[in-house]
Structure formats: C-alpha cells, structure tokens
Amino acid sequence: MQGFVRARGTDAPKLPSSPAVVAVAAAAASAAAPVTPPLGAPSSQQAARPALPADPEQEAAPTRVLLLRNMVGPGEVDDALDGEVKQECGAKYGAVAQCVIFEVRSQSVRPEARVRIFVQFAELAGAQRAHADLNGRFFGGRCVQATFFSEPRFAKLDLAPIQPPL
C-alpha cells in the first residue's frame, strides 16, 4: 500500500507525508456532527439528500479515484486530515491506496469547492461503495459532493479544477 500524498495550492505537491492514524474523517467538524451509520444501514439524512448539480469533472464511468468536495472548508485542513480520511474510508469501504488533499487558493472557485480530497481505492468496488454512501451526505453541517475522478489525471497529480465552479 502506498503512503499519503498532500498537495496544496497550484504548486507541485509534496511527496510523501507520514501516515497518521486517527479515528474520524473530519477533524474540523464540530463534536456535534452527525454520526455516520455503518455501511448498508439506512441514514435519516439519505432521504433528505439534495439533488446535486451536473459536474464537469464527473467521469462517465466509475473509477477507483473518488473526489470529495465540501467535506471541510478553506483553511480547515490540518496535518491529520489525510490520515483520518484514509483510515475511515479504508475501514468502511475497502483498502485505500492513497489520499491526496489539494486546496485551491483561487478566489474564483466557490469556497465549498476549494478543498479537494482525493481517495484512491485499491479496488473499484470500494470507490463505488464510498460514492454511494458519501455523495450528498452531511458531515459537520456540510453536504459532501463525491464524484469519480479521472485515474490518468490523478496519476499525473493534475488535481486543479477543470474550470472554476462559479
């Protein structure tokens, strides 16, 4: 299994950072954040999930790379977040090969889209389970947007938005 990679801003990412082992995948979320039910258990929030707009970065077919947006806001990324996300996703959905956090600095991108968390799963099925469970789910009062991301772009660490969401 590969280690973590952390990228911030539009400069080249730093490789590698040390893995952190912690319990929950939203360090910046408040202690009163909703508890995520076990995989497969119905969530009271699932029925209330809003319809999400079309996404120009959404791959036509599922991939092993999941892009999570609006999990935390700009400036809320800490050194433990990648490890938390990797551990939580690995425990719930399947082995995670890599977790990369890319924070967009441009003010032309909506604040909820500035922190881009990429989770590369070892197996496609893990990414599909995570997508089904996380897309539209609320964490710390934020509605998470999960989309499948291009594996070739991820491999090149081409992590910036294709076009800034307005």
Layout of secondary structure:
Blueprint (H helix, E strand, L loop, with lengths): L3 E3 L7 E4 L47 E5 L11 H13 L2 E8 L11 E7 L2 H11 L3 E2 L2 E2 L1 E5 L1 H5 L11
Parallel strand pairs: 1-4
Antiparallel strand pairs: 1-2, 3-5, 3-8, 4-5, 6-7
Helix pairs in contact: 1-2
Structure explained in plain terms:
The chain is of the alpha+beta class and 166 residues long. The protein contains 3 helices and 8 strands. The chain has a domain at 4-19 and 56-155: RRM (RNA recognition motif) domain (Alpha-Beta Plaits), CATH 3.30.70.330. Strands 2-1-4-5-3-8 form a 6-stranded mixed sheet. Strands 6-7 form a two-stranded antiparallel sheet. A hairpin with a 7-residue loop joins strand 1 (4-6) and strand 2 (14-17). Mean pLDDT is 74; it is low at 1-47.
What are the salient characteristics of this protein?
single chain, 166 residues, Alpha-Beta Plaits, disordered N terminus
